[in-house]
Amino acid sequence: MSTTDGWDPAQYNRFALEREAPYWDLVRLVQPVPGAHLVDLGCGDGRLTARLHETLAAADTLGLDSSPAMLSRAAGYSSAHVTFEHADIATWERPDHYDVVLANASLQWVPDHRGVLARWARSLRAGGQLAVQVPANADHPAHLVADELAGELLTDPPSDPVATNVLAPEEYAEVLDGLGFDPQHVRLQVYLHHLDSTADVVEWVKGTTLTRFKEPFGDEGWQRFVDLYRQRLLGVLGDRSPYAYPFKRILLWGRRA
């Protein structure tokens, strides 16, 4: 895979079932809207976007992503009423257009969540709903070891977006309130994933947080980094089979007054 796009749909979907759990918990927060206009920000390979369209019986659904690799897969799920486009969710805005703006495990990749959420809120019609899920597990060794090792090997390593961008749950509640969302729902939830072994944690983060190291390391350096990371992480977590992987996430929902 080219280092210009660190995302690998196959790697990401190795744990598709586990990654889906918070997605559907988020969708369950959305109240039914007959014939809704939906947008899925950070749609990935489009598989869940197409299912979202059917689940909510939407009139039309747009999926946006910045990864050409993911969008190439998403094209297979397009239809007359489900479409996909390349876009930067950090700057995206379409005022007063959508009934539901959903972003699952994508907002953490961009900074200034207060500003971004304000743009997304403006993209909702009156009474529209915002539903967002972000990981909040930057304090897990899977993240801490990656940052520690990258700091030893790179002069200017990319920072962990979960650690630098994600707000505390109570801050999101304040942001939603300031944007006029009433009612709202914000919660921190721990998902306990039972993986076959500790080594599977490496395979998990290869599809997510470690992607930020692909470009600075290059192809050969990336593989060496992953090998060293695996050794160090197993030294911290222990080589266990099975391994219970606790994963904290923040789910937030609100209706625009």
Spatial strand arrangement across the major sheet: 3-2-1-4-5-7-6
What structural class do you assign from the helix and strand content?
alpha/beta
CATH class of the domain at 9-137 and 161-195 and 247-256: Alpha Beta
Mean pLDDT: 93
Radius of gyration: 18 Å
Estimate the helix proportion, in percent: 25-40%
Number of strands: 7
User: If classified by CATH, what would the architecture of the domain at 9-137 and 161-195 and 247-256 be?
Assistant: 3-Layer(aba) Sandwich
Query: What is the approximate shape?
Result: globular
Number of helices: 10
Strand content: 15-25%
User: Biggest sheet, in brief?
Assistant: 7 strands, mixed
Low-confidence runs of at least 5 consecutive residues: none
Strand and helix order: HHEHEHEEHEHHHEHHE
The CATH fourth-level homologous superfamily of the domain at 9-137 and 161-195 and 247-256: Vaccinia Virus protein VP39
Distance between the termini: 45 Å
Examine the coordinates and then state which fold CATH places here, giving the name of the CATH topology of the domain at 9-137 and 161-195 and 247-256.
Answer: Rossmann fold
Detailed description of the structure:
The structure is a single chain. The protein is α/β, with parallel strands linked by helices. The protein has a domain at 9-137 and 161-195 and 247-256: Vaccinia Virus protein VP39 (Rossmann fold), CATH 3.40.50.150. It is 40% helix and 25% strand. The protein has helices spanning 9-12, 16-27, 47-55, 68-74, 113-122, 141-153, 161-165, 169-178, 199-206, 214-237; strands at 37-41, 60-65, 82-86, 98-104, 124-135, 181-195, 243-256. A 7-stranded mixed beta sheet has the order 3-2-1-4-5-7-6. Helix 3 (47-55) links the parallel strand 1 and strand 2 (60-65). Helix 6 crosses helix 10 (214-237). The protein starts with 8 loop residues before the first helix and ends with a strand.
